[in-house]
Amino acid sequence: MRIDKLLANTGYGSRKEVKKLLKNGSVTVEGKAVKDPKTQVNPEQQSVYVHGEEVFYREFIYLMMNKPGNVISATEDLHEKTVIDLLHPDDAFISPFPVGRLDKDTEGLLLLTNDGKLAHQLLSPKKDVPKTYFAIIKGQVTEDDKQAFEKGVILDDGYETKPGFLEILKAGERSDIELTITEGKFHQVKRMFEAVGKKVIYLKRISMGPLQLDEALSLGEYRELTEEEVSQLQNTAIK
């Protein structure tokens, strides 16, 4: 990688500003000053310093967020607050994006990364990556609903869903449930319950593939995935 691209990609300024740093002798590679912006470096094997500060380069970033309501799953929007707006500038700089979408009022697990290949594989309909949601339902959820979801229900546009696996945690005028689906149609969980005459009044995603929501994360908080979590996602994606 060219030294000017490395420094620009790690937040040391525009290409023009980086050239000034190089020209001033502020950049060293393996202890030697480098002034040519075309100099090739291997950031994983060579030590690079700017003003005596070591440069740490990472190609990909993987973040788990506990998405709050009233925030949209997008990289930018002229009118609404996005999940990217919740990131620290150092993390937002690497240009992560949400893997899939959660509705504006839906909370819970959201994966953000700049690894386009992994994101594409996790979202591929061919992979059938399971996603589990906790929901509060207006109305009593029954065993009949459970059986209907296992067969697949017809949505309002005529689409028949793949089987969904419903667990009834509490049944009553308000029912608590967990639902696992392998699709991500627009408002799918809400529309599935509408198909059986009920209404979702609270929705939270608690898992995606092997990734479980870290309950230590408050709404709006996020953390980097561990190496083990990244490896599990990658193994899921290649199956």
Give the CA-based shape.
elongated
**Strand count:** 13
Which segments are poorly predicted (pLDDT under 50) over 5 or more consecutive residues? none
Strand content: 25-35%
Largest sheet: 9 strands, mixed
Q: In whole angstroms, how far apart are the ends? A: 31 Å
- Quote the average pLDDT: 94
CA radius of gyration: 23 Å
Compute the number of helices.
7
Give the fraction of residues assigned to helices. Answer: 10-25%
What is the succession of H and E elements?
HHEEEEEHEEHEHEEHEEEH
The helix/strand class is alpha+beta
Task: Walk me through the structure.
This protein is of the alpha+beta class. The protein has helices at residues 3-9, 15-23, 89-92, 116-123, 143-151, 188-195, 227-238, and strands spanning 27-29, 32-33, 48-50, 53-54, 62-67, 97-98, 107-113, 131-138, 165-170, 174-181, 199-208, 211-212, 222-224. The strands form two sheets. Strands 5, 6, 7, 8, 9, 10, 11, 12 and 13 form a nine-stranded mixed sheet that branches. The chain is elongated and about 70 Å long. The mean pLDDT is 94.
What attributes does this structure have?
239 residues, alpha+beta, 9-stranded mixed sheet, 4-stranded antiparallel sheet, 7 helices, 13 strands, 24% helix, 26% strand
Give a summary of the structure in a few sentences:
By secondary structure, the chain is an alpha+beta fold. The chain contains seven helices and 13 strands. The strands form two sheets. Strands 5, 6, 7, 8, 9, 10, 11, 12 and 13 form a nine-stranded mixed beta sheet that branches.
